[in-house]
Amino acid sequence: MYVFASCFQRLEEISVGLRRQCTYDHGVTAVTRVLVVDDNEDSRAIYSEMLSLAGHGVITAADGEEAIAYALRIPFDLIILDLCLPKVDGIRVIKEVRSSPVARETPIVTVSAGDELMHREALAAGADLALQKPCLPEELREAVTAFLNADRRREPAAACGRTKRS
């Protein structure tokens, strides 16, 4: 019971910190849809809250199978994807999304603790940017903003990050 309570206390502390850092983006006129895919509940909650506070509509998925189901049925403006997922891994999710006429052009940012080889594999499969976990909220926020702004302008993203698809 203590571990369970401790986890929520830590999440609440992070959440309060994010509320202080994040402010609503008044420049957002239409809600952008972001799919957040991570098997770690804390990561999903943190990313979701950060994006929601920035004015984005967020849908979360806990595994690759669920991510594919959402991505192929709902038009998203951006997908944030962990690579180490249950049921279907992140690389397979990227390949499925890229092979779909519905979601083919959706930018994909991977956020994973995987090694450099895994990040390169994700980029080769079609991810647009690979960020290493732990990823600072500001780093992810900048990447999201860059991709969503680039999508509005239809220009290549100048996102921050460790590895970018060329």
Topology:
Blueprint: H1 2-21, E1 33-37, H2 41-53, E2 57-61, H3 64-71, E3 78-81, H4 90-98, E4 108-112, H5 116-125, E5 129-132, H6 137-153, E6 163-164
Helix pairs in contact: 1-2, 3-4
List keywords for this structure.
globular; Rossmann fold; 166 residues; alpha/beta; 46% helix
Structure in words:
This protein has helices at 2-21, 41-53, 64-71, 90-98, 116-125, 137-153; strands spanning 33-37, 57-61, 78-81, 108-112, 129-132, 163-164. With 166 residues, it is an alpha/beta fold. The chain has a single domain (2-164), classed as 3-Layer(aba) Sandwich (Rossmann fold), CATH 3.40.50.2300. Strands 2-1-3-4-5-6 form a six-stranded mixed β-sheet, with helices on both faces. Helix 1 (2-21) packs parallel to helix 2 and helix 3 (64-71) packs parallel to helix 4 (90-98). The radius of gyration is 15 Å and the shape is globular. The N and C termini lie far apart (48 Å). Mean pLDDT is 79; it is low at 1-29 and 153-163.
In short, what is this structure?
The protein has helices at residues 2-21, 41-53, 64-71, 90-98, 116-125, 137-153; strands spanning 33-37, 57-61, 78-81, 108-112, 129-132, 163-164.
